[in-house]
């Protein structure tokens, strides 16, 4: 059978997930061999390379937004999931409390410390190995701390009276020294080869020095050793390199029949600012028979300016006067990603990391498969 | 772009770095750890498999790889059916079912799917870096003018 080529209109229809007043339809992807008679849909790398596009919207140091266009939801979702749960970072995992006379309990303090986002040389983290925790069955099975799997931080601080303080002073931060313990009070103690990787700016340190850890009063002391290890978000959220990593599908608004005059204004109000614009009906449009614009030259009509900004609230579908005049949808293969880094990685590097993780996973399983066949 | 956390061949490069500077005993420990890491990643073929229809069990995987792999395997016209499931949410196991036509076999289809997914990753990386560079260049232009 000769391959059938679907019309452009049909291809456009397949690209849109329909959004109806109460339901969604045309949901699953159908680009598989055997789904449409006479069409191939076989995996084709060159075709993918041609169709796939990346568009950047924003690229700040710790927050970026970009679109992946021409990729299936399963793939886009894999990247999103990996970003959140499988890109490794370092975080405080073991806390050895030598002294803690503050009012905050050891275990609560340890929990707070674990959640502090840390940053440091990416090469260094690359060089670091996983720290294997002992299993319940075999308490001896864990790795021993070494320069390649553990980073040592210390928090050693004591609150004292400030002899120079004004006797009338009420602010404890002026009245005492070290009344507030901040993330910046954590010190890094490189061991072995860590000195080659984590130098100066690249040293392991909290991303934000102003995180409040505890409050002290004169005579109270905190002295603890903090061991950081490399881990992934799937194990504990503190290892997740992103604050958020999410995507949404590009909204699609299709005005089927003219929306004119007062209705057009009301229509624009159904959407966020900038989504719908108003334009006068031109002479040509008014002259065209059956367009719905006949005799409306100069009146304002609603046009779609920027569907990207829409939130797909479906408000316009609730009004009687727009019934059958507008079709809402989302573009099936246009994923608008938003990635916000916690500070270890730059946000755009993060996405590339996630792609690498997926590739590495595949490579490893391919090796596993080869072992299976041996 | 900063260097990656995932070097292409992690096990190998780690061995080298350790071997260069570490004493004997540490090296031995590293080797042991490598073995452990490799042993963790196992595929099991579930009972009842035939040449063209098999269920593979992936230990330590979830929807991330499951769904992506299902997609690339389904893109193969020689595959009759492909689906994945996570039989129990508290076990990190993923079962992948592949049924093929007589022209190929299940293992081959799985291998092809993995290859396709790796090729896809390369394209995504290339396009992403290119787009990112173009964007930073245009931003720099805007700043200058």
From TrEMBL, chain A:
PANTHER family the UniProt entry points to: DNA-DIRECTED RNA POLYMERASE, DNA-DIRECTED RNA POLYMERASES I AND III SUBUNIT RPAC1
Keyword Iron carried by entry: no
One biological process term in Gene Ontology: transcription elongation by RNA polymerase I
Record localization: Nucleus
Domain DNA-directed RNA polymerase RpoA/D/Rpb3-type: start-end pairs: 63-368
Similarity field: Belongs to the archaeal Rpo3/eukaryotic RPB3 RNA polymerase subunit family.
Domain of life: Eukaryota
InterPro entries per record: DNA-dir_RNA_pol_30-40kDasu_CS, DNA-dir_RNA_pol_insert, DNA-dir_RNA_pol_RpoA/D/Rpb3, RBP11-like, RNAP_Rpo3/Rpb3/RPAC1, RNAPI/III_AC40, RNApol_insert_sf, Rpo3/RPB3_RNA_Pol_subunit
Keywords: DNA-directed RNA polymerase, Nucleus, Transcription
Source organism of this protein record: Aspergillus coremiiformis
GO molecular function, one term: DNA-directed RNA polymerase activity
Cellular component GO terms held in the UniProt record: RNA polymerase I complex; RNA polymerase III complex
Record protein name field: DNA-directed RNA polymerases I and III subunit RPAC1
From TrEMBL, chain B:
GO biological process, alphabetically ordered: transcription by RNA polymerase III; transcription elongation by RNA polymerase I
PROSITE patterns assigned to the protein according to its UniProt record, in alphabetical order: RNA_POL_L_13KD (PS01154)
Gene3D superfamilies named in the record: RNA polymerase, RBP11-like subunit (3.30.1360.10)
Protein origin, superkingdom: Eukaryota
Annotated stretches, region: Disordered: 1-29
GO MF: DNA binding; DNA-directed RNA polymerase activity; protein dimerization activity
One GO CC annotation: RNA polymerase I complex
Low complexity bias (residue ranges): 10-27
PANTHER family (alphabetical): DNA-DIRECTED RNA POLYMERASE I,II,III, DNA-DIRECTED RNA POLYMERASES I AND III SUBUNIT RPAC2
The name this protein goes by in its record: DNA-directed RNA polymerase
Organism: Aspergillus coremiiformis
């Amino acid at each position: 059978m000769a391959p059938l080529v679907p019309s452009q209109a049909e291809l456009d229809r397949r690209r849109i997930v329909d959004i109806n007043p109460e339901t969604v339809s045309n949901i699953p992807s159908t680009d598989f061999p055997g789904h449409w008679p006479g069409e191939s849909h076989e995996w084709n790398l060159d075709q993918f390379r041609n169709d796939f596009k990346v568009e950047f919207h924003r690229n700040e140091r710790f927050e970026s937004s970009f679109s992946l266009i021409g990729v299936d939801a399963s793939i886009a979702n894999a990247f999103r999931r990996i970003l959140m749960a499988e890109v490794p970072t370092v975080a405080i995992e073991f806390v050895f409390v030598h002294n803690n006379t503050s009012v905050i309990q050891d275990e609560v303090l340890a929990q707070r410390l674990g959640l502090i986002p840390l940053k440091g040389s990416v090469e260094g983290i690359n060089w670091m190995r996983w720290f294997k925790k002992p299993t319940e069955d075999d308490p001896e099975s864990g790795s021993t701390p070494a320069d390649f799997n553990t980073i040592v931080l210390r928090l050693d601080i004591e609150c004292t009276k400030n002899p120079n303080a004004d006797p009338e002073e009420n602010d404890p931060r002026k009245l005492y020294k070290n009344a507030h313990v901040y993330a910046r009070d954590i010190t890094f103690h490189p061991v072995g080869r860590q000195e080659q990787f984590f130098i100066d700016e690249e040293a392991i340190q909290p991303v934000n020095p102003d995180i409040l850890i505890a409050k002290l009063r004169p005579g109270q002391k905190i002295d603890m050793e903090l061991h950081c290890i490399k881990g992934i978000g799937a194990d504990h959220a503190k290892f997740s390199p992103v604050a958020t990593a999410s995507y949404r599908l590009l909204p699609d608004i299709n005005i089927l029949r003219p929306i004119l005059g007062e209705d057009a204004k009301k229509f624009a109000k159904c959407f966020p600012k900038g989504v719908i614009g108003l334009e006068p009906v031109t002479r040509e449009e008014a002259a065209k028979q059956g367009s719905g614009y006949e005799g409306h030259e100069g009146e304002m009509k609603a046009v779609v300016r920027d569907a990207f900004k829409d939130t797909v609230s479906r408000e316009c579908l609730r009004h009687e006067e727009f019934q059958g005049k507008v079709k809402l949808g989302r573009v099936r293969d246009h994923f608008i990603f938003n990635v916000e880094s916690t500070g270890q990685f730059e946000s755009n590097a993060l996405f590339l990391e996630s792609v690498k993780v997926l590739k590495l996973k595949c490579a490893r399983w391919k090796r596993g498969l080869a072992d299976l066949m041996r | 772009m900063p260097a990656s956390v995932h070097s292409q061949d992690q096990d190998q490069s780690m061995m080298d770095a350790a071997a260069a500077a570490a004493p004997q005993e540490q090296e031995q420990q590293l080797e042991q750890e490598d073995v452990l890491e490799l042993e963790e990643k196992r595929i099991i073929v579930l009972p009842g498999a035939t040449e063209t229809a098999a269920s593979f069990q992936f230990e330590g995987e979830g929807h991330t790889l499951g769904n992506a792999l299902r997609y690339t395997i389904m893109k193969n016209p020689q595959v009759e059916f492909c689906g994945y499931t996570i039989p129990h949410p508290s076990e990190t196991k993923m079962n992948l079912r592949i049924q093929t036509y007589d022209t190929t076999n299940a293992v081959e289809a799985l291998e092809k799917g993995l290859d396709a997914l790796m090729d896809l990753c390369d394209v995504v990386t290339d396009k992403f870096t290119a787009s990112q560079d173009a964007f930073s260049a245009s931003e720099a232009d805007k700043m200058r003018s």
